[in-house]
């Protein structure tokens, strides 16, 4: 076995084989299906470890260095997943006043929202609200703010929460 992942797979398969062999024959099919489902679920729940490029993108976003972020995204290729590329692209589009493109990226990300962490959804809703306001789509901006306050308020720091509440009073 050449790679640690191969060893882990071999170990899991061996464990699986020993478990199935110890079960009476009538129960093995149902147990096998249940164990396979459990194994697939556990494998899919592994946390994503950000690549060095993704970490650099996050750092540039935090610093609001959108010029370097845009350049890094253009050069990154497959170092960043399409979802993460779209996330960072939404912010660079907003920074360079391409608000419709930013809103489009946000909509695509929310279509696959079960994959997004709530903190990322909150950040995207803040961005969407800003895009819609700049585009003169005040009702949509108010809707984004309402969703932010009803579903993702726990993800906001006190300053952003106060801003969102004040905007809700104005809208």
Could you characterize what this model shows?
With 171 residues, the protein is mostly helical. The chain is 77% helix and 0% strand. It has helices at 4-21, 25-44, 52-63, 66-76, 82-95, 99-111, 118-134, 138-151, 158-170. Mean pLDDT is 79; it is low at 1-12.
State the main characteristics.
single chain, 171 residues, mainly alpha, 0% strand, globular
Task: Please give the structural blueprint.
Elements: H1 4-21, H2 25-44, H3 52-63, H4 66-76, H5 82-95, H6 99-111, H7 118-134, H8 138-151, H9 158-170
Helix pairs in contact: 3-4, 4-5, 5-6, 5-7, 6-7, 7-8, 8-9
Percent of residues in β-strands = under 5%
Query: How far is the first residue's CA from the last residue's CA?
Result: 63 Å
Strand tally, please?
0
* Global mean pLDDT: 79
Secondary-structure content class: mainly alpha
Spans of at least 5 consecutive residues whose pLDDT stays below 50 are: 1-12
Radius of gyration: 22 Å
Helix fraction bin: over 70%
Largest sheet: none
**Topology order in helix (H) and strand (E) letters:** HHHHHHHHH
Shape: globular
Our count of helices gives 9
């Amino acid at each position: 076995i050449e790679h640690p992942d191969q060893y882990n797979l071999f170990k899991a398969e061996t464990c699986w084989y020993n478990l199935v062999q110890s079960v009476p024959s009538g129960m093995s099919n149902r147990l096998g299906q249940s164990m396979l489902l459990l194994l697939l679920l556990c494998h899919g729940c592994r946390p994503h470890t950000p690549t060095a490029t993704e970490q650099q993108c996050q750092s540039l976003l935090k610093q609001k260095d959108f010029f370097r972020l845009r350049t890094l995204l253009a050069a990154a290729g497959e170092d960043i997943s399409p979802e993460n590329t779209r996330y960072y692209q939404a912010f660079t589009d907003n920074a360079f006043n391409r608000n419709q493109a930013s809103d489009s990226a946000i909509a695509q990300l929310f279509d696959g929202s079960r994959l997004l962490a709530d903190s990322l959804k909150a950040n995207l809703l803040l961005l969407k609200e800003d895009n819609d306001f700049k585009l003169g789509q005040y009702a949509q901006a108010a809707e984004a703010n309402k969703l932010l306050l009803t579903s993702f308020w726990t993800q906001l720091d006190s300053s952003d929460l106060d801003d969102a509440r004040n905007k809700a009073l104005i809208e």
